[in-house]
Every structure is written in C-alpha cells, then in structure tokens.
Amino acid sequence: MEGKVESLWEEVRELSLGTTVDRLHSPPTPLQFLRDFVSQNKPCIISNAISHWPALSLWPTPSYLSAALSSSTVSLHLTPDGHADALVPHPSHPSLCFVSAHVQPTPFPQALDLIRRPPNYLVAYLQQQNDCFRTEYGELESDCDGHIPWASEALGCLPEAVNLWIGNHFSQTSFHKDHYENLYAVVSGEKHFLLLPPTDVHRMYIKEYPAAQYSYSQEKGEFGLELEEPERYVPWSSVDPYPATGNLKQESLKFPLYFNGPKPFEVTVKAGEVLYLPSMWFHHVSQTPGDDGCTIAVNYWYDMQFDIKYAYFNFLQSLPCRSIDDPTTPESACEEDSGPHASPNHLNSRFSGDDSATTNVHDNV
Hints:
Layout lengths: L1 H16 L4 E3 L5 H9 L5 E3 L8 H4 L3 H7 L4 E7 L6 E4 L6 E5 L1 E6 H9 L6 E4 L22 H7 L5 E7 L5 E4 L3 E9 L1 E7 L9 E12 L4 E6 L5 E5 L10 H7 L1 H4 L5 E6 L3 E4 L4 E7 L6 E9 L4 H11 L27 H6 L14
Parallel strand pairs: 1-2, 5-12
Antiparallel strand pairs: 2-16, 3-6, 3-7, 4-5, 8-18, 9-17, 10-16, 10-18, 11-15, 11-17, 12-13, 12-14
Helix pairs in contact: 2-6
Pfam families: Cupin_8
InterPro entries: Cupin_8, JmjC_dom, RmlC-like_jellyroll
Protein name: JmjC domain-containing protein
C-alpha cells in the first residue's frame, strides 16, 4: 500500500499539477476558473485582478491607514518570535505543544507602529481571521472589492469571511490546510508560499499536540506559555521545512517522506497579484515587507464543496503509509477532522478560535 501512496504523489503532478503554479495575466472567466482550477483543485496566481483597487495606492502609506483607523481598536496578535499557531517546546516536559498567539485589543495606530518598528522582545501581527475586514476594519471597505466577482460566480456564493493581514518579516505560518477556497490578494510587500496538494497528506506527519496559549505581560515585557484547560489536542503538521542550520540531516531522518519526496510548489505573490489557494492544500507562509515596512493582504474565504474530492481525501489520509527509506510509520493517521482546522462547521469552529486556523491563525498567512 505504501508504494502506491508514494507513487500517487508523482502521478498527481504528472497528470494534473505539473511542476509550477500557473500564472494568469488577466482574471479568468468564471467558467475558466471553475473548469481549469476549482474543479481540478489546482492553484494559480492571477495578475491584474485588483489593479482597480484604491488600496494599492493608498495602503502602502502608513499615515493613510492610521488616519482612516484612528479611532479603531483592533485585535493584535503577539508572540516572542513571530511563530504563532506553531509547535514549540512543552512548558512542563520534553515534548512539543501547539501554541496560539496572545491577542491584545490595541488602538490601530499603536498596532501599526509595533509592526513597522518591532521591539526586540515581541513580534506583532494583525491576523484575526474572524471576518475582521468587515468588522474591525470597516472604514477601509471602500478601498477594495467586497468579493471577487468572477470567483463568486464560479463558486456560486459570496465569501463567508474577508480578512485583513498586516505583518512584518518576522511572522510566518507553519504548514496547515483550510477547508475554504481561498482568494489571497497582496496589497503591499510579498507573500511566500510553500504548497503541497491534499494527496501529500502523509508527508505532513500530522500528530495531535496539546494546545497552549502565549500570555504577555506589558509591565515586564515578557511572555509566558500556558496549556489550555480543559486539555485540548490539535492535529498539526510536525514538519518544519526550514530547520535551523545544521539540523537538516536530523530533520530529514525524522521526516523522510517530506524531505525525500517531491519538492513543494514555491510561489511568491507580489503586490497587485491574487493567489487562488484551493481547499485542503497544505501551505506554509512567510513574507517580505514593502517600503512601508509591512506586508498587507486581504483574503476571501469561500465555502468549499464537501463533495467526492473531500471523501477521497478523507479516505486517503486514513491509509497507513510507510516510507521506503524509513521502516517506521509516520504519525499521520490521526483524525485531522477532529481538530479545529477541519470541522465542516466552518464558521462555528473557525471563528470560535481556530485557525489560520486555530483561534485565529495561519496565515499567519
């Protein structure tokens, strides 16, 4: 069985995905988008789809954003190193736990200043993900579209959530997947994605980790780490695609299916471009700020269809898979859908405190 699963990774690329992510120089028609990308669960990057947005010229000016949101209080996510919704050492024994950021209500001008001029003891990120663009940042709605018209027509619905992301080069999001069709528009700076299709689920070494939360003391300028009570476990990928210098060999031995398998698709989404990220694709995200010191993006989450592709994925992830290079079975057979990322009750699970999924992740897209 394991050999057949491993051959599937190559066959999917040969038959459907190719070796690079398609780039479109203009927005597709709804039929083209549905036929060539959504139905095939295949990502693409689209240029000239948001060139009419006032945001492209207005938002890279920090004074404009601060003035527009001068009276707004926003949800600022704080971590010691920019890694939220990530695996960190367990506070009480030698293992790992899944940690979420400390979320602090903050006046927007102060939040933006912390992102643009980060102190050496914390990393700030605006990434609330609970439809925050239409709630916390409502004053900016006229600067961009409320939805992506050709995507809405193709998908037969309007987005369930529209989110705003403002961060700096320290913030990144570990590998995860979302049960949404994601249209991700970059307004300032660049976003860097590593992408793997749902067929590569065994390569993610998904394991359940105890959930934890950062706490931050302004008086001391220090972070604490506390396990959630009652105890909760989160299914999460164990793979770090960028291990510390000198650790690559060790990580390759621990996770051979990832490091010895097909390379992830690598894409950079620049200001003015839109990434279509299909539902259930695994993605790791980092970013490069623009001249304003920020990376700014708006993403649109459309409800995915829980159709035969979803059934195939659930069946595939239930199969055991052994690496031809490693006699041990990767910890990937746990039920991902028991965790916060996977509940089909997306709005309830997603917006009640689960990603980027957790309580508000992923992206740190």
